[in-house]
Amino acid sequence: MKILLHTCCGPCTVGTLKELDRNVHEITAYWYNPNIHPYLEYSSRLDSLKKLAESINMPTIIEDDYGLKKFVKMVAEDISNRCGKCYEDRIYQTARKAKELGFEAFSTTLLVSPYQQHNRIKQMAERIAEEIGIPFYYVDPRPHFREGNNEAREKGLYMQKYCGCVFSEEDRYRKYRKAS
Predict the structure, then answer these.
(1) Domains of the chain
(2) Is there a contact between 46 and 161 (Cβ–Cβ < 8 Å)?
(3) What is the pTM of this model?
(4) Which run of H or of E encompasses 82?
(5) Confidence of residue 1 (pLDDT cuts 50, 70, 90)
(6) How far, in Å, CA of 40 to CA of 42, rounded?
(7) Does the pLDDT of residue 126 top 70, yes or no?
(8) 13: Cβ–Cβ under 8 A, 6 or more apart, which residues?
(9) What tens digit of pLDDT does each residue of 24-38 get?
């Protein structure tokens, strides 16, 4: 099956690919992440994905558009629901792109992290798949999260410290500061 895999970073892609069998499926990585900030973080994650894709010979489609203004406008009215808006934006874009390019299904690396809202992402992707008219290929790669991170470190991939948006960066470092 030809699957377009939304990818948020190299390490999450490594973990997800452990669940998606590349010998059975033809997987193309898709980079669309207007939520990742600041710019150096965005660049580091994109470079990490490119490095991984090259090392395993995985086709990649990159929407290289640093989306600070778009993301801020999208979440400004409801910052407490920023994650839902962010998931929805990236999943919609991936489903549209998959359909436009003739893929048989789409999926996302967002499902690998134990820090993300797994069931919410799954339900949202299923709804969007029905709406757009392309199947969502569901796998639960969470058991491979730590293993994927360890392998990513071995490969020398950039390891991020927070989800991606400026608000998650603040949350992460505020907790770290309080703990010290």
Answers:
(1) 2-179 (3.40.50.620)
(2) no
(3) 0.92
(4) helix 82-100
(5) very high
(6) 5
(7) yes
(8) 5, 7, 29, 49, 52, 109, 148
(9) 899 999 999 999 888
